[in-house]
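ESCALATION

Customer reports they have been waiting on this structure for their group meeting. Please prioritize. Original submission:
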Amino acid sequence: MSDIHSDISHDQHAVRRQKLAELRAAGFDPFRANVAPTHFSGEALKAYVDGQDNTVPVTVAGRLVVMRDMGKSQFVKILDQQGQIQLYVKKDVVGDAAYAVFKTLDLGDIIGAKGTLFKTKTGEVTVRVEGYTLVAKALRPLPEKWHGLSDPEQVYRQRYLDLIVNAESRSRLMLRSRIVSHIRRFLEDQKFIEVETPVLESVEGGAAARPFVTHHNALGVDFHLRIATELRLKRLLVGGYDRVFEIGRIFRNEGVSRKHNPEFTMLEVYQAYSDYRGMMTLIKDLLTTLCLDVLGTSEIKHAASGQMINFGGPWREVKYKDLIRTETGDPQWFERSKAEKLAGAEKIGVPANPGWAEFEITNEIFSKKIEPSLIQPTFVTHLPKELCPLAKLTPDDPTTLDVFELCIGGMEIAPAYSEQNDPDVQRAMFEAQAGEEKQNIDQDFLLALEHGMPPAGGMGVGIDRLCILLTGAESIRDVILFPQLRPADKP
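Update from on-call: job pushed to the front of the queue and completed.
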């Protein structure tokens, strides 16, 4: 904000403070007042009966966002959870004293109002106010009408202002809540049980990621903020929870990008007596019904490419190795030496680190060249065994796993596995991944497996990425109410 705008804001703050002092001196404290709304704005608009002005009584409440003074009357609009509704406040209806106070109100003040519904000459359903109550005086002004919140940092730091003045942000973040609600209902209808597992873990597991570390003073030990919920949820499979899910916060001490935030929301779901193909059916049914029920369509526009993504049509299924062979133009890619793979990656514009393992070179090609091109729903199956130690090997190709990554809109949306339930194989895969750091192996999870875990399909769904896709957002920060930021220089 410029110095001029800062000065204006400071002056308005002083004026509003003075108004509050005058209200209190007159014996009225707006922060002690209360109202009992009978309708949200959207409900009130729907309650109007055509041709029956002033027959439907309502009480509404919200923040003043539009004010038009017409002398002895005012048209104003208030904003609540469902949107805006217009109020008509007339001096000879509310009384001289109440109207005089109303004229001193400012944009941003929060009021309650009761009255009846009518339709204006322009056809707008409006509340004819019979009485109102100021319930919260806004001591600081809203962002200017025409400039709004133009600074992205301010949008994220002062999200409450963004929600007031930016209808697009408000709609997008409201839609996120509806998406999560639908996911819960869908899984519960499929007889899944929602659970909660610990955020603090003594051994991080379930993913290859750097954890955040915190210290527990009373116990005198360090804990990690969880990087996945997988190993806890699979313990529940051992315990007899045959269909279980958690929508939980995950923490990974890694970089930030358009698709990454250090704190994010993940759905993990596990179904006993199933496999990765059972998860294919589950995620397709989930996303298809979600689009129809929440968005009202099976097609959405991909913001980056402009393509229409069709959730209602056939979903492509293709093996990881086939995609790599096609992208590199080399049918013998997986038989090549490391030096040949380094050269092949360089040839197609994917620089690779000579210190990487062969599977990492190959996966860099997938991440940089192939995944961004997968706009339509695509199940990429049978990934290299090195990428996940928690899945079953493919019976006819022990170099790959019975897994898929669902890619839509150029992003991985949902990985899924046929879960490894052989405790001896699981131990060997953990040890191969851990190398020298055997203390990082979750021994209690291996103990649980030795008690017997049924075969199962398991899947993770990145809720934030899904919301990016379905809302057309540009960044993960746009679908998280309060994304992580560096501390501000000034409060």
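Sent to customer with the following note: Residues 74 and 89 are 5 Å apart (CA to CA).
Escalation resolved.
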